[in-house]
Amino acid sequence: SKTSSTFVGAVNDLFKGRSKIDEDLYEELEEILIGADVGVKTTMELVERLRAEVKERKIKDPAELQPLLSEMIGEMLAGNEERNKLNINEDGLTVILFVGVNGVGKTTTIGKLAHRFKSEGKKVVLAAGDTFRAGAIEQLETWGKRVGVDVIKHQAGADPAAVIYDGIQAAKSRKADILLCDTAGRLQNKVNLMEELKKIHRVAQREVPGAPHEVLIVLDATTGQNALVQAQQFGEAVNVSGIVLTKLDGTAKGGIVIAISHELGLPVKLVGLGEKADDLQEFDSAQFLHALFKDAIEEEEAEAAEK
Amino acid sequence: MAFEGLSERLQAVMKKLRGKGKVTEADVKEAMREVRLALLEADVNFKVVKSFVDRVKERAIGQEVLKSLTPGQQVIKVVNEELTQLMGGEQSKLAQAGRPPTKIMMVGLQGAGKTTTSGKLARYLMKQNRRTLLVAGDVYRPAAIRQLEVLGKDLNAPVFSLGDKESPVRIAREGVEKAKQDGFDYVIIDTAGRLHIDEAMMDELKQIRDTVEPDEILLVVDAMTGQDAVNVAESFNRELGLTGVVLTKLDGDTRGGAALSVKAVTNCPIKFVGLGEKTDALEPFYPDRMASRILGMGDVLSLIEKA
Ligand SMILES: Nc1nc2c(ncn2[C@@H]2O[C@H](COP(=O)(O)OP(=O)(O)OP(=O)(O)O)[C@@H](O)[C@H]2O)c(=O)[nH]1
Ligand SMILES: Nc1nc2c(ncn2[C@@H]2O[C@H](COP(=O)(O)OP(=O)(O)OP(=O)(O)O)[C@@H](O)[C@H]2O)c(=O)[nH]1
Ligand SMILES: [Mg+2]
Ligand SMILES: [Mg+2]
Fold first, then answer.
1. Would the CB atoms of A187 and B249 count as touching at under 8 Å?
2. How many other C-beta atoms lie within 10 A of the C-beta of residue B81?
3. Whose CB among A91, A261, B157, B212 lies 3.0–4.6 Å from B152's, allowing a Cys bridge?
4. How far apart are CA A227 and CA A239, in angstroms?
5. What's chain A's Rg over C-alpha atoms?
6. pTM value surpassing 0.90
């Protein structure tokens, strides 16, 4: 198919200038992957598999490594065109819950997604479920105003589950299509805060059949190996259904989502590429892979140009 | 608690060495291979890991070490010394200007914890009877000013703001002016989160710096940051000349490799660590204590010292 061929092509330039497959090349590959936060374990696994393939198929040309590697990483990324899409309840209210550690971009992503749904002609309501952090409610309200959607809120310090409950009732009575629920950032090792999140989840389950239709864990691309622990722990608490990878407009690569996707079977559904309302995109694995190797390719090209 | 995973891994390596009556070059190399993996898995930048391991190897394979009566312990001592060095040696205090107010400028990526840390620092200083003014210099993030105002109100710390229609440079200048006039001891300028590659936004920080001439420019870094921590810290340091680092979210279960990377590339001391969302969750950072805690060898070390 078209996507898979562009996907395979994504790293095509990496080993172009190389004449042979040797230890240096494997080592450089390891460094690129680890440097992109792919993690030691997944990197070793990928490089080992690559070595095995090279041996078995008697591959001599470095150029042949690229499609192989792309394919391997592609297999690890659990998504596909179907699974990368948000699960939308076509004949009624869709409830989407956002979870994650502090400062990753939950509230901003909600603002962006509200903007997108609104421009698709959907009726959107936001629930200000972060009643803890200073100014969190006002932050969501500002987004609500900016994109023109209603925000259901209580006072600071209120029970977040009660806010979500009210959000659901309001969304129902206003015949909204989409309810986006913000929650306070919390570190996954805080037991009481994870219990609070479970309660929010239960309220959504109870009030709307089939809800929450998505539980999205928001991960900051700048985060290292701890993102895997985040995905595991939030997954255990509230049955996460997908990943939003934010801040990909920086220089961090977010390589840890490969391990997360592989080990937990979670698709990446959206990526954040900035702070504005339209800086939200569908996950494109070819683009992601290209970015993973981009610096290495540029470095090689710069070196080649110097010679 | 952060660093725990790293600590466990390193201690396991050290334990193997400690028991040995005779240590060969091969033993050291094997141990360093494991140290390398432990550091990489903790998100220490791969370049930093490389030079660390090389340095330890060079010193540890030196004849005095391997031929000493307690070679295993001597190797451990080298690792500990190098790790302490990597973390920054002795504790480093907050600057104090000859003539008040002491001006502190907070900078960093989006969501790192600048605003929260501004509040925490104000509280920390006020506890020492220092009159502190907070300056709301983030005019971009929705409700950023409100966030600082809420924090200030809880602490009884005044917050200077000109709303979000004025330039951050002017806000900073007038904030400092106000602190001078009203006899404040400290003035803390919160700034908007930004990417280190965003030239216009980095320029804005330079203008603020040149206008107010801060005594401290603190880079706020999320302890969960992965390999990219070095790029971020290097850029902020190159553009602004940092005086210190604050490491936040250490109340999580990250292995915290960013701490080691950031210090290594900027040579700036980590001055404080954030250990929670509330304003009392800030502590001065003691690199030497942290290094021995990671190696779990407070007692062991004093024994070696005596030997
Ligand atoms: N560059 C960039 N910044 C982003 C992106 N997404 C969010 N941000 C910024 O990251 C910061 C934190 O975003 P929030 O939406 O407040 O994050 P949060 O997860 O809701 O934070 P808490 O509620 O405090 O846990 C803000 O400054 C956002 O503007 C992105 O994709 N790229
Ligand atoms: N658990 C924990 N959370 C923290 C710590 N420091 C900050 N936070 C949380 O991290 C999130 C982001 O903190 P902010 O202070 O808004 O970060 P910021 O750097 O000002 O963000 P921007 O202004 O959007 O760039 C908030 O949810 C804070 O409560 C900490 O030490 N521990
Ligand atoms: Mg939020
Ligand atoms: Mg802020």
1. yes
2. 15
3. B157
4. 16
5. 21
6. yes
